[in-house]
C-alpha cells in the first residue's frame, strides 16, 4: 500500500484529496447537524483542516524572520538589490491597478445588486474595520516576537502574530548584521543553520497537505452557506468572473510578455494555489508559496524570502482589488447612492495602497470597510455580503497566492536571476521534494 502511494506524485495526491474532500463534505452535509452541534464527520474534517493550518502558521514567524535575515545577508552577492525591492513594489501596484480596473468594469456592467434577495435588516457593521492609521501602527512592532494578545470570552489569553511587524524587525536585524560586518558572522551562520532546520520541519508539514486538503475542502462543503449563492447570485458570479479573468487572462498575458511558459508557472505554483483555495489563508499558505517559488519556479532564495512574505501581507489582487471594487458598487447600488468618476478613482487608490493599510488586521472584510469608509458609504452594507463571504474567500485567496508567486517570478526573470532550468523543469509540484535543494542566489548581470 505504502509502495503504491509513493508512486503517486505529490500533485496527484493533492488532486485526490480535493475529490475526497468534496465527496466527504457532501456526505457530512447530508448527515445534518448545525454550527453549534456539528455531526462527527464535519467535526473530524474541521479538526484535520484546522490542525494543518495551525501547523503552517506556527512555522511562519521563524521562517519569515530567519529567511529575511539570511536573504539580506545574501543580497550583498546580488547586483542591484535595491532595484529588486523597487521592481517588486512596482509590480505589486501595477497588477493591483489592473485587477481593480477589472473589478470596477464588471461592477458597472453586471450590476451586482440587481435581483439580490437580501433584506436591509441584514445590514450590520462589522466588528473589525480598516483605517489608514492601522498601516502606521502596524509598522511598529509591539514586541520583539511580533506577538499580539487578545482575551477570549472564557477569560483565556490567545496570541497571534503580525507578519508585517516580523518583516520590519527581520529587515532591521539583517541590515544591522551587514553593518556590523565580520563580528556578525557567527550570528548569520546560526541563522542559516536554523533556517535549514525550519525548512526541514516545513517539508514534514507540507507532506500532510493531501490529507489536510480533504479536511479543509470537506469542511467548506459541509459548513459554508452554499445555499446563500442564490440570494446573491449576480454578486457571486461577478466576483468569480473577475478572479477568473485575473487568474486565467491577466497573469498568463504578463507571463508571456516576459517570455515565461504559462503552463510551467501554474504547474509549479499549483501546490500553493490549491492550498490557498482550501485554507482561505495567505499567511497559512506562505511557507508553501515561498517553497514553490524557490524550488519549482527558480526564484533565488535571497530574493524570494523577501518578496513572498511581503506579498503575503500586501499583495492581494483578490481580497484588495476585485472584491472591494465590486462589493463597493454593490453597496452603493443597494442603498441608492450614485458613484462618480472621483469615487471610482478612490476605489482604485484604496486597492493599490490599502492592502498595506490593513496588513496588521488582514482580511477582505476589513479591506472592504476601508473602501466603504473612504467613499463615505454605509459600513452596514458589509453585513449584506457575509453569507457568501466564505465561498468567495476561497477564490480570492487562491488568486492572492497566485499573484504572490507571480510577481517574484517575473521580477527575477527581468533582473536576470531566475533559474530558468528549474522553472522549465517544473511538473505539477514534483520539484517539491524533501531531497530537492533550495536554489542559491544567482548573481544578476549588469
TrEMBL record:
Subcellular location(s) per record: Cell membrane
Highest taxon, organism lineage: Bacteria
Recorded coiled-coil stretches: none
Alphabetized UniProt keyword annotations: Cell membrane, Membrane, Transmembrane, Transmembrane helix, Transport
Transmembrane segments: 12-32, 44-69, 89-110, 163-180, 201-226, 238-255, 320-339, 345-370
Predominant location: membrane
Membrane association type: Multi-pass membrane protein
SUPFAM superfamilies: Proton glutamate symport protein
Gene3D superfamilies: Sodium:dicarboxylate symporter
Listed name of the protein: Dicarboxylate/amino acid:cation symporter
Lineage summary: Bacteria, Bacillati, Actinomycetota, Actinomycetes, Micrococcales
Amino acid at each position: 500500500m505504502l509502495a503504491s502511494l509513493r508512486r503517486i506524485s505529490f500533485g496527484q495526491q493533492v488532486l485526490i484529496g480535493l475529490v475526497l474532500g468534496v465527496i466527504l463534505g457532501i456526505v457530512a452535509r447530508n448527515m445534518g447537524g448545525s454550527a453549534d452541534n456539528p455531526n462527527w464527520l464535519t467535526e473530524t474534517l474541521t479538526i484535520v483542516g484546522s490542525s494543518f493550518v495551525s501547523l503552517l502558521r506556527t512555522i511562519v514567524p521563524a521562517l519569515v524572520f530567519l529567511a529575511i535575515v539570511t536573504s539580506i545577508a545574501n543580497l550583498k552577492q546580488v547586483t542591484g538589490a535595491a532595484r529588486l525591492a523597487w521592481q517588486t513594489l512596482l509590480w505589486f501596484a501595477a497588477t493591483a491597478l489592473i485587477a481593480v480596473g477589472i473589478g470596477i468594469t464588471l461592477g458597472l456592467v453586471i450590476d451586482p445588486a440587481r435581483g439580490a434577495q437580501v433584506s436591509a435588516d441584514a445590514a450590520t457593521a462589522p466588528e473589525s474595520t480598516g483605517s489608514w492609521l492601522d498601516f502606521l501602527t502596524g509598522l511598529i512592532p509591539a514586541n520583539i516576537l511580533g506577538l499580539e494578545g487578545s482575551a477570549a470570552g472564557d477569560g483565556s489569553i490567545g496570541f497571534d502574530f503580525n507578519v508585517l511587524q516580523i518583516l520590519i524587525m527581520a529587515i532591521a536585524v539583517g541590515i544591522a548584521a551587514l553593518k556590523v560586518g565580520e563580528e556578525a558572522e557567527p550570528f548569520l551562520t546560526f541563522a542559516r543553520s536554523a533556517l535549514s532546520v525550519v525548512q526541514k520541519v516545513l517539508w514534514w508539514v507540507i507532506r500532510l497537505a493531501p490529507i489536510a486538503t480533504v479536511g479543509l475542502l470537506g469542511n467548506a462543503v459541509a459548513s459554508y452557506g452554499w445555499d446563500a449563492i442564490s440570494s446573491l447570485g449576480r454578486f457571486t458570479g461577478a466576483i468569480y468572473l473577475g478572479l477568473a479573468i485575473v487568474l486565467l487572462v491577466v497573469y498568463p498575458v504578463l507571463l508571456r510578455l516576459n517570455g515565461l511558459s504559462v503552463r510551467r508557472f501554474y504547474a509549479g505554483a499549483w501546490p500553493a494555489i490549491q492550498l490557498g483555495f482550501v485554507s482561505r489563508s495567505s499567511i497559512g499558505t506562505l511557507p508553501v508559496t515561498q517553497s514553490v517559488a524557490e524550488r519549482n519556479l527558480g526564484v533565488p532564495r535571497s530574493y524570494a524570502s523577501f518578496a513572498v512574505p511581503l506579498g503575503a501581507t500586501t499583495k492581494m489582487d483578490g481580497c484588495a482589488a476585485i472584491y472591494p471594487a465590486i462589493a463597493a458598487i454593490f453597496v452603493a447600488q443597494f442603498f441608492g447612492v450614485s458613484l462618480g468618476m472621483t469615487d471610482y478613482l478612490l476605489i482604485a487608490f484604496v486597492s493599490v495602497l490599502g492592502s498595506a493599510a490593513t496588513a496588521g488586521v488582514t482580511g477582505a472584510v476589513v479591506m472592504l470597510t476601508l473602501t466603504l469608509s473612504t467613499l463615505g458609504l454605509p459600513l452596514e452594507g458589509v453585513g449584506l455580503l457575509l453569507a457568501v463571504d466564505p465561498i468567495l474567500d476561497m477564490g480570492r485567496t487562491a488568486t492572492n497566492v497566485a499573484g504572490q508567486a507571480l510577481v517574484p517570478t517575473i521580477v527575477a526573470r527581468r533582473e536576470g536571476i531566475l533559474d530558468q532550468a528549474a522553472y522549465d523543469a517544473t511538473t505539477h509540484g514534483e520539484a517539491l521534494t524533501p531531497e530537492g535543494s533550495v536554489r542559491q542566489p544567482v548573481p544578476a548581470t549588469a
